[in-house]
Design a protein that fits this description.
With 379 residues, the protein is mostly beta strands. The protein has one domain: Beta-galactosidase, Chain A, domain 5. It contains three helices and 29 strands. A nine-stranded antiparallel beta sheet has the order 12-13-14-15-29-25-24-19-22, with no helix packed on it. A hairpin with a 4-residue loop joins strand 4 and strand 5. The longest helix is centred in the N-terminal third of the chain and has 15 residues. The protein is globular and about 55 Å long. The N and C termini lie far apart (59 Å). The chain binds alpha-D-galactopyranose (GLA). The site of alpha-D-galactopyranose has 11 residues, from strand 26 and strand 27.
Length: 379
């Protein structure tokens, strides 16, 4: 009998219930519950992490996806600022990568191919003839395993994915760990750690769309943005980098000072027209492998302030130009054109085909690492 009781305590209790402290204020907390089932019957879980100030992040094991994230306004009122869906079907059918981890290669690879050590690899193409965000079944459409824990800085969730050799055409079996920590300073910190058993390329990112008004029917055009980048990588009509690196100075792409997104978005500037708004890789200043401030976003009506820190060389700033209202988002809201923006920390798009750009190659014995932090406050 005793054994059965011990077994019950060891196996069943941690599985179904709250891990850590329950609903008390000023206490960090982690909860786990069933979110839905995939077509093959596999279960997808949702974890809620709550920090001491009372912010929460919800993450599902499908795509290692951030489903919601709350942040305080200038009166201390918390609201959800991340676009997402109410159910698994939204994530399975949606093509906007809301909140997901995109990979193996976030952003575009021209012709969906690259050459490594003399061998050319044909990848799964899902954006015309190009690849976008890892192919038809990239990391955002995979089921991850998860382990929650209390870290010194706040509640945390480590998600792990083993991507087999040949997955979407990529060589090598890659193991990627993504750890989300909701720190007690209201930061969502994302730490990546990846390894491979054959030479390959790896460049994941998180693709959360934010709307700092907390009301997803609003556009993001009044948000003010600052990006610490003197240069960007211009694109062609398929949004593939031309290979040049141009100055932002004297263009509507210059966000060196806080500037409203909507103030120049319709300017008669060829690059803006090609991208249907902002959808550009910024070459972040001071790239040396260390975490530094990459961008700030201020929402004047609520005072919400978001700072983005990363050790990556690039930041894709995207203004939701392809959001078209389907599938319906949380609470039945249609996410329309420019109702969310993304700040994706990553290497430059198409780097596998641009040998002069920072390398995305990962060899056996090496460890891929990335740290990106979204920090919330109010002014
Ligand atoms: C990235 C790309 C965009 C678009 C979105 C997803 O931000 O740069 O062009 O594909 O992902 O819709």
């Amino acid at each position: 009998m005793k054994r059965i009781i011990y077994l019950f305590i060891a196996l069943v209790i941690p599985f179904v219930t709250t891990i850590g402290q329950t609903n008390k204020k000023d206490h960090a907390m982690i909860e786990k519950s069933l979110f839905g089932k995939l077509k093959d019957g596999k279960e997808v879980y949702i974890y809620t992490l709550k920090n001491k100030p009372g912010a929460t992040v919800k993450i599902i094991t499908y795509g290692a996806t951030v489903v919601s994230l709350t942040a305080p306004d200038r009166n201390g009122k918390y609201a959800d600022v991340a676009l997402g869906y109410d159910n698994l079907e939204g994530y399975e059918t949606g093509s906007a990568y809301l909140g997901a981890i995109a990979g193996r290669y976030a952003n575009r690879i021209a012709g969906a191919k690259f050459t490594l050590d003399g061998k050319t690899y044909q990848l799964s193409a899902n954006d015309g003839k190009n690849q976008l965000h890892g192919g038809k079944i990239g990391f955002s459409k995979d089921l991850w395993t998860a382990k929650s824990f209390e870290s010194k800085s706040g509640p945390a969730l480590e998600l792990t994915l083993v991507s087999p050799d040949g997955d979407q055409g990529y060589p090598g079996e890659v193991t990627l760990h993504v750890t989300y920590t909701l720190t007690n300073d209201n930061e969502l910190r994302i730490d990546y750690k990846g390894t491979t058993n054959k030479p390959t390329i790896l460049n994941p990112t998180n693709h959360t769309y934010f709307n700092l008004t907390g009301v997803f029917t609003n556009t993001i055009l009044n948000h003010e943005v600052k990006i610490n980048a003197d240069y960007y990588t211009p694109i062609d009509k398929e949004s593939i980098p031309t290979g040049k690196i141009d100055k932002v100075e004297n263009t509507p792409l210059d966000f060196l000072k806080l500037t409203a997104i909507g103030s120049r978005i319709n300017d008669n500037f060829e690059q803006l027209k090609l991208a249907h708004g902002y959808d550009f890789n910024y070459v972040l200043n001071n790239y040396n492998g260390k975490v530094r401030e990459a961008a700030d976003v201020y929402e004047p009506t609520t005072g919400r302030y978001l700072q983005i820190f990363t050790d990556e060389p690039g930041l894709q700033f995207y203004t939701g130009n392809f959001l078209n209202g389907t599938p319906l988002g949380k609470n039945g809201v249609a996410y329309l054109f420019r109702t969310g923006f993304a700040m994706e920390a990553e290497h430059y798009p198409d780097s596998p085909n641009e040998p002069k750009w920072p390398s995305v190659v990962l060899n056996p014995g090496q460890t891929y690492r990335q740290t990106t932090i979204y920090k919330f406050s109010a002014k």
